[in-house]
Specification:
Blueprint lengths: L4 H12 L3 E4 L5 E8 L3 H10 L9 E6 L6 E8 L4 H10 E2 L2 E2 L5 H4 L3 H11 E4 L4 E7 L3 H15 L4 E5 L2 E6 L1 H11 L22
Antiparallel strand pairs: 1-2, 2-4, 3-4, 5-6, 7-8, 8-10, 9-10
Length: about 200
Amino acid sequence: MELSDSQQAMMLGLVLGDGYLQKTGEYNARLRLEHGLKQKDYLLWKVKQLPRLFSGDVKYLSRVHPLSGRTYHYCRHQSIATPYLGNLRRLFYSDSKKIIPKELVQLLRSPLSLAIWYMDDGYYYRRDGCAYLYLGNVSRREAMIVCKLLKSNFGLMTKPLVKKRGYAIYFPRREIGKLKNIIADHLLPGFNYKIPLDPVTTSPT
């Protein structure tokens, strides 16, 4: 399957973010996208950018949290199964667990990839003027790979922080303006809360 450069960059962001690659055979996989109902338009935008992978309609589902007992409503779309996605799965998964491969430093060079990853898993902490990119249950070695690529490919100085479930990448206040300049052109409407409009005053310029 041939994808444009921007579509391949987008796929990197999706796989690193909220996307899940499900194995469907020895060589193939499919991409599953899920978001809460409030982010339905975000999911539809992702699907629209990849028309060769997605067809049909979004499914609306619900599930009960096993601990809280609360019911969560969400939407899901799954792609077709292809060897292209199978290759990505072999790179980004080990024993069915998502990983951050060392090759990521050479692969992730597009601001679009970083923007999608940040829209999925990034968070701006307004009180302290810093930001985080949550990686989930990964090792310190994997978190350091992300720090390395952010420095070498985007000039961002970050550090890994231990969280309850793995690691997050910490962007100090002094790097927020630089981060915004890198990803701003790719941020969708409604995601301004994840990066300040003005990194100094946190108010519109």
